[in-house]
Records
---
Amino acid sequence: QVQLVESGGGSAQAGGSLRLSCAASLRTFSTYAMGWFRQAPGKEREFVAAVSSSGGSTDYANSVKGRFTISRDNAKNTVYLQMNSLKHEDTAVYYCAADGGGTGLRFGLAHYWGQGTQVTVSS
């Protein structure tokens, strides 16, 4: 059974940083595009960032561009989200996702989802 397990969430002050990790039990991890989404209370889940299977291409939501960086280590079956200059509005549950097709993450399409990790930013 495929599992995506997020870690690294927690609390931070505005202007601070957090680094999320997502460990995937995908045998063919290096063939999946990976992404991060978030859902704030009372809001719909939204796309945050995605990285191609090779790691050579990335995509970001405008709201996080320049502050967040997505990366992956295919040798460790892990994807990361480095979050800098955090804002109160970044508070949400963050989800990791895997897309075997490689093109659907921006549209919320994924084959597998993690359980989420809470990020809380105090202003």
Note: DSSP finds no helices and eleven strands in the chain.
---
Amino acid sequence: QVQLVESGGGLVQPGGSLRLSCAASGNIAVINAMDWYRQAPGKERELVAAISSGGSTNYADSVKGRFTISRDNAKITVYLQMNSLKPEDTAVYYCNAPITVVAGGGLVEYDYWGQGTQVTVSS
């Protein structure tokens, strides 16, 4: 059983900062990219930031220069440092990772999602 557990969301004023964490656990054979998505009310889920196992990163244009994604491979944890937050950053933030597990005598890759953590930016 593989789980992605997020933490760190909350209410913050515009211009403030939050740090999200997502820890993976379970029968993990291989985990490469780890991503953060977000979904605001009435909108589609969108990719916010991604990081490869080697540390290469990609960001949505809307968060470049404000958000930083990082990971600790030993802890199988990905972080999202969010600075200069804006009201439009308000959303549920989800951790995502394609993870290879041992199943049925072989290796199978599944796409895993965390439960989501609410980020609200408001004065």
Note: The radius of gyration is 15 Å.
---
Amino acid sequence: QMQLVESGGGLVQAGGSLRLSCAASGRSFSSYAMGWFRQAPGKEREFVATISWSSGNTYYADSVKGRFTISRDNAKNTVYLQLNSLKPEDTAVYYCAAGHLYIATMNYEYNYWGQGTQVTVST
């Protein structure tokens, strides 16, 4: 089992920034691809970003490309998501996930999920 705990969400004005963190425990973190997904009210969960277990590759949804940055620190068993130039449409619950693959973009590829952290962007 792997436990994932997100933090760093909150209320921010449009154009602002937040840094989300996801702390992992219980399994070999460095052998898992890590991803961030989000779910807005009334919408399906959607892919945001992923990073390979070696940090050699990252991939982003078009809607966040150039504004969000995913990174990881394998020594700290933590993955981060830096959110810049936030827009009201970024409002959602953000989830981190771990998949026992090199890199993954689909929900079903992930084995473990956190409980989520709320990000609210006001106008």
Note: The chain is about 0% helix and 50% strand.
